[in-house]
Amino acid sequence: MEQWTTQRIGDLATVFDGPHATPAKTKSGPWFLSISSLSEGRLDLTESAHVSEADFTKWTRRVTPEEGDLLFSYETRLGAAALMPPGVRGCLGRRMGLLRPHRKRVDERFLLYAYLGPEFQGEIKARAVRGATVDRIPIAEIANWPLRVPPLCHQRAIAEVLGALDDKMAVNERIAETANALAEALYVRDSAIEQGWRMIALSDCAKWLSGGTPKTSEPSYWDGDIPWISAASLKSAWLDDSERKVTRLGAENGTRLVPAGTIIFVVRGMSLTSEFRVGLTQREVAFGQDCKALIPHAGIDSVVLLLALRARTREILGLVDTAGHGTGRLGTDRIAKLRVRLPEGERATAFAETVRPLAQRASAVQNENRTLAALRDTLLPQLVTGKIRVKDAERVVEEATS
After folding, report:
1. Which residues contact 328 (CB under 8 A, 6 or more apart)?
2. What pLDDT tens digit does each residue of the chain (402 aa) get?
3. For residue 318, which of 327, 328, 308, 326 has the smallest C-alpha distance?
4. Fewer CB within 10 Å, N- or C-terminus of the chain?
5. Rounded CA separation 19/198 (Å)
6. Which residues, 6 or more positions from 79, have their beta carbon under 8 angstroms from its beta carbon?
7. What DSSP string describes 275-309?
8. Number of CB atoms found within 10 A of residue 392's CB
9. Could you tell me the pTM of the whole model?
10. Integer Cα distance of 82 and 355 in angstroms
């Protein structure tokens, strides 16, 4: 096995932090990279806001994030990190830090995987400053923290193995996006035909349900196996998992269960200021009070109704008003009156048979990504601590991605 050595973070990368303030948010412009932008080792811009060009100039006086920089949170969500991808123009938000790798000493992808690995996560837990409201990483000290690394060639080999899984997941995401886009295009094309289509109020399409949140202080309600869909976790058109899950007891106390084939959409949240989040359940789930659920009436296909809603995104966002702190709010009385175009009779059956395979394909690759992510998360701590040989991991990854 290659010789591993303990290095200072400061010998492997330069440490920066962002301004200790928050600029005014805008609907367009450079990205404001906040702690909500960090999701499972990747940069997720669906939770990110924009800033003006003037504020971008101010917020990048200290550092402008570049491709390959490691972005991390040094307050609240300690341990979260992601690499800055190509083609993204943004500035560091409050509570965000950045490691700029010295590429002659460390591979940037290995640095990310090592940061997310158990040894460095342990350092974060041990060295974090515990505050009255939030915990934080002492940003001035992180340069002196230790990180075990192998020679650069071995770092690259480890990064290539784990990166192959990430690359496969990225391909699957593009497949899902293509399938979704094709289904939406077919809806737009076919719904323009007068014959066999009708306009119907959304209130007459389905049974409407409200959700809720079980008491978070009751342990027996949480960490079960039933996904609990919230405004924050509703990020996919196909809903079968969530970071937070409830038990059967929790589902019976404070929330509501809905079956597969139910449409869930956000009616309150920051995301409504720029996007309409709506998805279709693939299994039984529970959902929170910031969402509404629609169980389509007999004769109305759930996938087709989902496409009809997504096609009206612009009009739906026009119904959103703003509550306190910039939170978007979509009144049920408003959206219930929205009229959508749906097929009927033989055309309804034929169109559903056309778009359902696309929906199933998108859902299938999403499920595959969950399996690949679990494999990556299993291999990552073994590889970045030298407990498993790269060749052994390569065989496992080759079987999973072939």
Report:
1. 268, 269, 270, 271, 272, 273, 320, 321, 322
2. 468 999 999 999 999 998 888 888 887 899 999 998 898 889 988 778 899 999 999 999 999 999 999 999 999 889 999 999 999 999 999 899 999 999 999 999 999 999 999 999 999 999 999 887 888 999 999 999 999 999 999 999 999 999 999 999 999 999 999 999 999 999 999 999 889 999 999 999 999 999 999 999 999 999 999 999 999 889 899 999 998 999 999 999 999 999 999 999 999 988 888 889 999 999 999 999 999 999 999 999 999 999 999 999 999 999 999 876 668 899 999 999 999 999 999 999 999 999 999 999 999 999 999 899 999 999 999 998 888 889 989 998 888 887
3. 328
4. C
5. 53
6. 73, 116, 121, 124, 125
7. ---EEEESS-EEE-TTEEEEEEPTT--HHHHHHHH
8. 13
9. 0.80
10. 35
* DSSP letter, residue 44: -
Closest CA to 289 of 214, 237, 352: 214
Report the C-alpha gap between 235 and 291 in whole angstroms. 13
Adjacent-strand bridge partners of 200: 340
| Token pair listed for 16 | 């920066």
| Bridge partner list, 210 | 292
Residue with tokens 């008491």: 215
Residue type, 398: E
* Unique residue bearing structure tokens 């496969």: 168
